[in-house]
Specification:
The chain is built from eight helices and twelve strands. The chain is an alpha/beta fold. It starts with 9 loop residues before the first strand and ends with a strand.
């Protein structure tokens, strides 16, 4: 039996040209990357949201939307509407060679801009460079006074360090991903605990109660129980 191959990183390749998409996927797979092919902007958005990638290779000319528009959505700082990892690296790979295109792409949040036709060796070097830079960053998620550092795996409220269990931390991250949205009990049990149905468990209620007290022992103002619906996270 062949040994299992470890992925060095996971990359979404958003490219509508079939030959170029196949070439990139083949080369990246051979270089031990996990590859997610996205021939459209809609595919890329879905994979960036649910595929847990480390990097996106983004073409600008896509059949269903402009690549720049997709980049704007990915870099949208409003965490109430954007749940894509803020640490996601983005390299534009495009035939558009004007200075205006490059400045626009970098200005909208791309980490690099590679022109077509490209040398795969050069592209690989740039991919590795972006992945190294991104791995050293400390992506923070801020909701009101609550600050979540997903690299250090720490939580602070108004500068005060809060000790959370693994499940409490995971629960907080889900709630903070879309602050003010009400998550149903079924959604939270599925995303945090992997339960397929709510059943009669009181696990969620117990964790929400502890999380509420840890975040604000005096007023319990952050984790809100919306009776008959579920839970949400709100700032002060």
């Amino acid at each position: 039996m062949l040994p299992q191959r470890d992925e060095t990183a996971r990359i979404v390749v958003c490219e509508d040209d079939e030959a170029t998409l196949e070439l990139l996927c083949d080369h990246l797979t051979a270089d031990r990357f996990g590859v997610l092919a996205a021939p459209t902007a809609a595919d890329a958005m879905r994979l960036c949201l649910y595929g847990e990638p480390d990097l996106l290779l983004l073409d600008l000319g896509l059949p269903d939307a402009g690549g720049i528009d997709l980049l704007r959505e990915i870099r949208n700082p409003d965490r109430s509407t954007n749940r894509i990892d803020p640490g996601l690296g983005v390299i534009i790979v495009s035939g558009r060679s004007s200075e205006r295109d490059r400045i626009r792409g970098l200005g909208e949040g791309a980490d690099d801009y590679v022109l077509k036709p490209f040398s795969y060796g050069e592209l690989l070097a740039r991919i590795n460079s972006v992945l190294r830079r991104r791995s050293k960053s400390h992506p923070l998620l801020q909701v009101g006074d609550i600050q979540i550092n997903d690299v250090e795996h720490t939580v602070r409220v108004g500068g005060r360090h809060i000790r959370l269990s693994m499940k409490e931390y995971a629960l907080l991250k889900v709630l903070a991903g879309e602050p003010s949205r009400v998550f149903s009990k079924e959604e939270l049990l599925r995303e945090v605990w992997g339960y397929r149905s709510a059943g009669h468990t009181r696990t969620l209620e117990a964790h929400c109660s502890r999380l509420r007290k840890k975040l604000d022992s005096e007023h319990g103002r952050y984790v809100v129980n919306c009776w008959g619906v579920g839970y949400r996270l709100v700032g002060p």
